[in-house]
Amino acid sequence: MTIRQLGGYPLTVLTAVTAQNHEECSYVEFLSRKIVTQQILSLLALYPIKAVKIGVLGSDVTIRHLAPFLTPLAKARIPIILDPVISASTGYCFQNDKAQHALMTTFFPILHCITPNIYEAQCLTRSTIANTHDAIESASILRAQGVKNVIITGGDGNNHRGTGNDIEDVLLCEGRDEPIISRHARMRSTPFYHHGTGCCFASALSFFVANGHDMLSSYQRARDVVIAHLRKTDTDTGIGGLA
């Protein structure tokens, strides 16, 4: 939805079907490697790919199976952006430890960018993020595993980073020696619940990277897209799903 609204032409490969609403994710069925593979081959046969955005992947077997399709794209300098969905916003777990290990060893060296939230960054780095320094250390660990750009988003934190109701994102960008700390006002001001913000952000980021923007500019534009969506759902019903 996000990429289409921005004027892009998204090509979707389904890896899982979920039963969920804004309160719970009650069931997930991961699709077979065969149907996932056939979807990829059908798209690669006809369409020029400008960027790849990855979300839920499933088991370690599926992750390792997909790597041969992505490696040639990375070598052709097509940016691959990973939103490492470890669990749903409502708590349903999508990845076990074996899948996370496969993700790190198989995908990280070919990634242009990874966009974990605080919880996901903690899981991937086996660390605790309680402040800005911790977030920078976590991002550095991810960079050391081969990822070119790391963006740790702070929207799932409990105001332990930043001040007041600010959200603090931490960026490590290729070609920049120093981390970038970005603070912006928390938009979840209603008692209602928004889910899908991570997917919306990573999708928008992929769109802007595919259209030639550098990482910092792509981040800023993608952040603004999410904020605009949140403002709209707060104004409308207070309940929103973003994707």
Describe what is shown at a glance.
The protein is of the alpha/beta class. It has helices at 2-6, 33-44, 60-75, 97-107, 118-125, 132-144, 197-210, 215-236, and strands spanning 16-20, 25-30, 52-54, 80-82, 113-114, 149-152, 166-172, 180-185, 194-195, 240-241.
Please provide a written account of the structure.
With 243 residues, the chain is an alpha/beta fold. It contains eight helices and ten strands. The chain has helices at residues 2-6, 33-44, 60-75, 97-107, 118-125, 132-144, 197-210, 215-236; strands at residues 16-20, 25-30, 52-54, 80-82, 113-114, 149-152, 166-172, 180-185, 194-195, 240-241. The chain has a six-stranded mixed beta sheet, with helices on both faces. A two-stranded antiparallel sheet has the order 1-2. It has a two-stranded parallel sheet with strand order 9-10. A hairpin with a 7-residue loop joins strand 7 and strand 8 (180-185). The longest helix has 22 residues, at 215-236. 36% of the residues are buried.
